[in-house]
């Protein structure tokens, strides 16, 4: 644990969380700007959507590498370097005038985001004493979760007054300020470059696993999941995953110390967080369509309504963090999962004749549940002190895989539901039959209910295991 004064710790937490917020926001804020990017750059909508996919997949492929690097040379150098790379990538994204340039800039931006995400939780747990971890990580979770769920709302507000380029430009001044605040507060320990040991076979296998898996998903969405090429890629990803585990068991300095997964709190925390972030992306995909296409609201109005989620999240996340310091993150998260059923029930019932106020209530309750779910304290608390860097990277990896899977699953379910009613393949909003979209929306949210139900069983099982261990 490095020494930081009490006041400086909280300033450091704010600076760290602001960069975390931006890196997470940029995974979701682009969704609502895709039609604008498509029109201005003169590319089809499905190609413009690569701007979202490339960012998420690149982060997933890079996180573990930088998490291991942060454990070896220190989390602060990795985080601060990542902040500068992310700012430069954001500037390049905003200046891009063609799709290839924008995709290249998004890859560079993802490089910085992966460095930031892999180190931020470790910095916080190292700076704060154990009895303040819940509060500190809860506040950080507020920024991270708001970044994840506020994208459509913030994006809608920006697009109402400026071009899509400003979705990226806005990161530049905030990132620079956060970097210099951190530079003044963080300890400046020398970097021991000789400590770096890279498990290249393990990392190469892991990165290929991630890339193969997500190419299979995105290809499957376009060509169907029974396409021979898609099935081959899924099989390749599974084989590479097995090879990765074999490599990690044999190398002297593995990329991931597999012993970390022996902790039920860590493992189940990662899986349940992934499920919750998947459900969060159902809202990011479905609600902008529903508000702007079905209800014919402007992007500005839709953005204001969608802000109900992050606004309530801002209150519930730190509150949940404080409570978790007293009763444990697992219990708080378990209770929070049941709150999710209230908004999901409202979304299952919603129709164009439903008063808009009920939809806003549902989004607000979703923000309460999402904020109260204490995935970060649960995951970091389940890992030992020597694993904090890689544990933070794994937490971010679970979050980003959840977001990527949520994007793919929600989109696939939505279009499959509409295609089933139309009797033919539907890959766009059916303006002549809005009822097809509403029914497909209800069908998709039933899957969201099932995902939250699975998370309830996992965390409930963990609590039962802990109780039996304590009484044994």
TrEMBL record:
PANTHER family: MAJOR FACILITATOR SUPERFAMILY MULTIDRUG TRANSPORTER MFSC. It is found in: Cell membrane. One of its GO terms (molecular function) is transmembrane transporter activity. It is a multi-pass membrane protein. Keywords: Membrane, Transmembrane, Transmembrane helix, Transport. One of its GO terms (cellular component) is plasma membrane. Residues 12-472 form the Major facilitator superfamily (MFS) profile domain. It comes from Schleiferilactobacillus shenzhenensis LY-73. This is Major facilitator superfamily (MFS) profile domain-containing protein. It holds the Pfam family MFS_1. InterPro entries: MFS, MFS_dom, MFS_trans_sf. CDD domains: MFS_MMR_MDR_like. Its main location: membrane. The chain crosses the membrane at residues 12-38, 50-70, 82-101, 107-125, 137-160, 166-186, 198-219, 225-247, 259-282, 294-312, 332-350, 356-373, 394-416, 445-465. It comes from the Bacteria.
């Amino acid at each position: 644990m490095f020494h930081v004064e009490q006041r400086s710790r909280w300033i450091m937490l704010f600076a760290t969380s602001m960069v975390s917020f931006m890196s997470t926001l940029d995974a979701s804020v682009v969704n609502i700007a895709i039609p604008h990017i498509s029109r201005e750059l003169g590319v089809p909508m499905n190609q413009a959507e690569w701007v979202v996919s490339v960012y998420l997949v690149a982060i997933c492929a890079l996180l573990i590498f930088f998490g291991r690097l942060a454990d070896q040379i220190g989390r602060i150098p990795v985080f601060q370097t990542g902040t500068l790379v992310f700012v430069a990538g954001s500037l390049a994204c905003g200046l891009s005038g063609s799709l290839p340039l924008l995709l290249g800039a998004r890859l560079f931006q993802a490089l910085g985001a992966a460095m930031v995400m892999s180190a931020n939780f470790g910095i916080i747990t190292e700076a704060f004493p154990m009895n303040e971890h819940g509060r500190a990580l809860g506040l950080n979770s507020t920024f991270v979760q708001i970044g994840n769920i506020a994208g459509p709302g913030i994006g809608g507000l920006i697009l109402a007054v400026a071009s899509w380029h400003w979705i990226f430009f806005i990161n530049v001044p905030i990132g620079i300020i956060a970097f210099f605040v951190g530079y003044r507060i963080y300890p400046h320990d020398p970097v021991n470059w000789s400590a770096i040991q890279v498990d290249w076979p393990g990392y190469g296998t892991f990165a290929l696993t991630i890339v193969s898996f997500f190419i299979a998903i995105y290809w499957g969405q376009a060509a169907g999941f029974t396409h021979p090429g898609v099935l081959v890629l899924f099989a390749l990803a599974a084989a590479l995953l097995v090879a990765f585990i074999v490599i990690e068991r044999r190398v002297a300095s593995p990329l991931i110390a597999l012993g970390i997964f022996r902790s039920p709190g860590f493992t189940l925390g990662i899986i349940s967080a992934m499920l919750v972030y998947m459900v969060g992306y159902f809202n990011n995909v479905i609600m902008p369509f529903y508000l702007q296409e079905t209800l014919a609201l402007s992007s500005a109005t839709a953005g204001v309504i969608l802000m109900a989620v992050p606004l309530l999240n801002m209150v519930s996340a730190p509150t949940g963090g404080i409570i978790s310091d007293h009763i444990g993150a697992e219990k708080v998260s378990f209770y929070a999962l049941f709150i999710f059923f209230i908004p999901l029930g409202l979304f299952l019932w919603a129709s164009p004749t439903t008063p808009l106020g009920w939809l806003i209530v549902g989004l607000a309750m979703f923000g309460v549940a999402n904020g109260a779910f204490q995935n970060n304290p649960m995951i970091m608390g389940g890992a030992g002190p020597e694993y904090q860097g890689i544990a933070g990277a794994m937490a971010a990896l679970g979050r980003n895989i959840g977001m990527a899977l949520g994007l793919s699953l929600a989109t696939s379910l939505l279009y499959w539901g509409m295609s089933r009613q139309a009797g033919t393949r539907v890959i766009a909003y059916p303006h002549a039959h809005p009822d097809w979209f509403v029914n497909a929306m209800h069908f998709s949210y039933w899957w969201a209910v099932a995902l939250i139900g699975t998370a309830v069983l996992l965390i409930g099982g963990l609590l039962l295991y802990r109780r039996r261990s304590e009484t044994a």
